[in-house]
Amino acid sequence: MKVLTATAAIKSLGADFRFQTVLSVKRGSKGLHLRLQMNGDPSFSSEDLSALLAALRHDMKQTTVRSIEVIDSAFTGHSRSRGQVWNDIGVCFAAPVTALSIDGNCVYGNLKPGRVGQLSSLHVSDSQLLAIDNQIVTVAADTADCQQNLLVGEHNRYRLTGCMPANASMMPLRFSINDERAYFALKLKRSLRAQGFKLNAEPQFTSGLEAYSQSYIHRSAALIELLTTMLVESDNLYADSIFKTLAIAAQRPANYEVASEVLIGQLEQLGIDVTRLQIRDGSGLSRENLVSAKALYQVLQLWQQDPQLQPLISRLAIAGQSGTLRYRHSLTKTPLKGHIHAKSGYVNGVVNLVGYIEKDGQYSPFVLLTNGVVLTAEEQLALRKRQIIHPVLSFERDWLEQQWQLIK
């Protein structure tokens, strides 16, 4: 899906497109009135917000903020696509996609075992951003079937249940926030105070307001750089934020349904066979996405033929070197290492790889889609013990090596 998203984005938005976040101000007799227009920049960070406020503070003698309105209506509809797996919610790779994007809409933490019979030790990078009720108990090292479960509540509240063996390694955690406004408001208030402003009102979230005459603008990196992050790291927030922005460029409501229509229309204009496509999002998180090998192969050929799309080839992950292909077991040895430029795709039961075999400067496109993957109990055990590599990856390695030999 991200290959299709990148194609439509370059054609619809252009490689130099940049997300803009706009802070504007109106001076009043008793203080400042601020408006912050958020437009779904997936790369926007607390540092970027601080830089906007620092520029404002430099120009203002007044420090009292009488009101601050946050315009968050750039994206409409649901913050997650139809067909996403319900128990992915709460994990950062499925963070909500809204205009209020900051720091990846994600909070980091880790979990360590304690003494047997006691609760595990939970560390969260910022406990004010979310509340976690940790009920994971430490159990003996030889305890079988020990699992951890995440229950997602309202207002950025979570509950961890289950058990953790006493000899377990530290478990990294990445929590997706679920109340975007509460999360963003806290970050905004912190940044205002850090820059020396006095806030006399809570942030208000609204729509349809124009910026005041005096403005400060943060621009993201160019789209081609954002697409590099999306393709190499397989970043879902980047993918779906760019996906929804396709609808804005078409001057239509920026929701998943409309963006799907826009993307399919763009591909059809480029001569891609869209008859078998069913698109629910730009990231591939929805299990309802249906993409044909033929359409993907046509897109890869188009990347080679179209000067506007050719730069995307060099923005793919490289086997054994970068992104999702750095440690892919099928690609870490010669002759494939360093010579496969591709995008991986994985959900439960699906293992995909699409891209190019590079040999002596020649790029040959390929598409490998594997659906309905089920391993036997013996295979699963051997895989966990690292006695074998995944059977699909074994096939993938052998097939790609055969193709490599066929390229003259």
Task: Give a brief description.
GO terms for molecular function: carboxypeptidase activity. The chain is 29% helix and 26% strand.
Commentary on this structure:
Strands 1, 2, 3, 10, 11 and 12 form a six-stranded mixed sheet that branches. Strands 13-14-15-16 form a four-stranded antiparallel sheet, with helices on both faces. A three-stranded antiparallel sheet has the order 5-4-9, with no helix packed on it. It is globular and about 75 Å long. Helix 1 packs antiparallel against helix 4, helix 2 crosses helix 3 and helix 5 crosses helix 6. Among the domains are: 99 residues, D-tyrosyl-trna(Tyr) Deacylase, Chain: A; 77 residues, no CATH class. A hairpin with a 2-residue loop joins strand 15 and strand 16. The chain is built from nine helices and 16 strands. Helices cover 29% and strands 26% of the residues. The two termini are 31 Å apart. The chain is an alpha/beta fold and 408 residues long.
